[in-house]
Amino acid sequence: xxxxxxxxxxxxxxxxxxxxxxxxxxxxxxxxxxxxxxxxxxxxxxxxxxxxxxxxxxxxxxxxxxxxxxxxxxxxxxxxxxxxxxxxxxxxxxxxxxxxxxxxxxxxxxxxx
Amino acid sequence: xxxxxxxxxxxxxxxxxxxxxxxxxxxxxxxxxxxxxxxxxxxxxxxxxxxxxxxxxxxxxxxxxxxxxxxxxxxxxxxxxxxxxxxxxxxxxxxxxxxxxxxxxxxxxxxxx
Lengths: 113, 113
Known about the structure:
By secondary structure, chain A is mostly beta strands.
């Protein structure tokens, strides 16, 4: 499929457990951050975003935490399900008005039944 | 995939041949982007467009050109394909620039022999 797959950090969790995926971003001037999910053979799918004036944002079963002091972003998935198995990417907006994104290399989440 | 189609979905070509990939959107979004995805690199921006006939370079633009003659279509051309351009190519769209969410197409897998 179109996902990266090789040499990716992998997080293996049991179905029903909570998952935490971490990301370090590079540019202290970035003001917008996004998490994407990519299933095998598909394009990245938007999950949740957060702006730099916030440190936490919640969606349905997902929470994003932003720590600007250490340039760290995390994605928490509650009650992980088999359908959550995918590669997860963080991205930071470094382009201001032009919305240019820098993507991390991704984490493979494997949910064990 | 948010009203985005890419064609072709798969292509095999030979070194030195020209290749054009097409991204078509039905959302009437102003911004369009081309990314490539390779193992170990995540997604990297090639070129983007902020309106008809308005384009600019991303971080990996060498060897690629783009054109946008109408809102719905954004073309990526490899003038003379090289093996290093073997990759999966994704198109994305956003309604505006700034921090607007980017939505991705299904991807094109290109192999240059």
